[in-house]
Amino acid sequence: MNRITTNKTSKESKSILNLDIRPLSYASLLEAFQVLREALPSDRRWLIDLLASLNPWKGIGLPWLGGCEYLRYWVSIEKNRVVGVTGMYIPRQTPESISWLGWTAVRPEIHRRGIGKFMLDYIFQQAKSMEIATLAVYTSIKHPKAIAFYQKLGFFPGKGKGNYLVYKKTLL
Fold it and tell me: Looking at residue 88, which CATH number applies to its domain?
């Protein structure tokens, strides 16, 4: 379990983060669904990914990925409440040392408090410990705030497909 306590001062307010990050579990699954439903109301593909991550045969049932070598999700907890979700996966057909960021969201009413950065810093640590050299993420052109967030964290644009863009970050 990771914990962070920080003071963050903004023009509007001063906030103190006291967050834990834990593996997604059946106990936190419904709250994780709620966070993603609030943040991404027009997309429900994350349902299968989160459920599959709890499956001991990780990746079975994910035909669009051809299965996964690695599939994990975590939740960020503040005051016993799930406030964010993030994940990481490695599809079987992915070149070595590349991993993908899974569905990532923070409750919309608490954006801009550092929770998303906290969760991605955790993912970066996980990837580096697995000797993953590059982390990639798909994001929609319909989410310019997400694109700006990933760029701020050092992701650079790669190839896209349709309404989706791929951003990559070198870790090692």
Answer: 3.40.630.30
